[in-house]
Amino acid sequence: MLPITRKIVLLAAFVLPIASPNAVFAALPTEINGQALPSLATMLEKITPAVVNIATEGRQPINDSLLNDPFFKRFFGDAPPGERRINGTGSGVIIHAQRGHILTNSHVIENADAIHITLKDGRKYLAEVVGIDPRADLAVLQIPAERLTAMRFGDSDRLRVGDFVVAIGNPYSIGQTVTSGIISALHRNPGISEYENFIQTDAPINLGNSGGPLVNLNGELIGINTAILGDQGGGNLGIGFAVPINTAAGVITQIIQYGSVERGQLGVEVQDIDAEMARTFGMKPNEGAIINQILPGSPAEKAGIEAGDIITRLNSRNVQSAVDVKNIIGDLRVGSEVHMTLLRGGRPRNVTVIIAPSTMERSAIPKHTDNIQNAANNKPFWEKGLR
Length: 387
Hints:
The protein is mainly beta. The protein contains 6 helices and 24 strands. A 7-stranded antiparallel β-sheet has the order 7-6-3-4-5-9-8. A 6-stranded antiparallel barrel has the order 10-11-12-15-14-13. The chain is globular, with a radius of gyration of 25 Å. The N terminus and C terminus are likely disordered.
């Protein structure tokens, strides 16, 4: 666990005298001029039992730089790499009460030998891993517990910038904590995982919040808090990212049904439509994605799709960018049908394609890292869990 370097400052505004036994104290007002004051308390009382704290124990290989020093090797030869014990912490949300399923980030349980779950009521369990998807940074766990509370899913496709949201988690392992803010942006792609369509929020998210829920004011799960743009100390700068729950839903379904996610491919390379291209095609910017290459022997080639076709819809979902195409196709399992709406020469065409196995090499999948930029030079980095 990383040490907490920030100081906790206690401020005393004034000192109250000792009251007599018969003194009457004023309570905080619950209404003003007959109008009830707004509060999230009632909503939070219903949903916070669905949020869990996660603590992990594991091993991580290490390579001591001294052992790799050429001078050292002259006398002792090559030394085998060692291991170190690591402890991690994070958050999760119960998504199925009867089955005990918990959704979290895959990086929260990375390299874990044991996963300890603590419920809000204090009960503790060892969790089993149902399945993980590192490419979307999601994992499903299971605990043998009864009387659980699951969080209801919202519709992340209906979110708007400015909507109020609440983040719940276990920052710095101090216990369950609630923060609030708004949605700052949608469809963010900062390059921290392979499949990205992040919700950006200014609700304070800190180390240990990874895997916890982002909820709307109806108490519905709309995202999984995954990363923050922070300083060297990992503190919050008001820029946090969450995986939309609609994006996570397909991953969850595959993990629970099959134990893993088997992504396929359409066999096209696409690019965004910029302002100049939009004028040429008589379209709006950020409307559709243009195909610039068809892979030989791919499902797209077999379906008669051509380079220059513009994808506007996939399975009834509007396409605004090349990232949309990647994310929508990435949600589909091999053998699934995808119904496409294309523009060719300004005329719409409807095509159905069967998703084929992906030829992507596993080595091309980016590994998770706590610092994907150089924090030593005071550059921002993406916080992806507390280790």
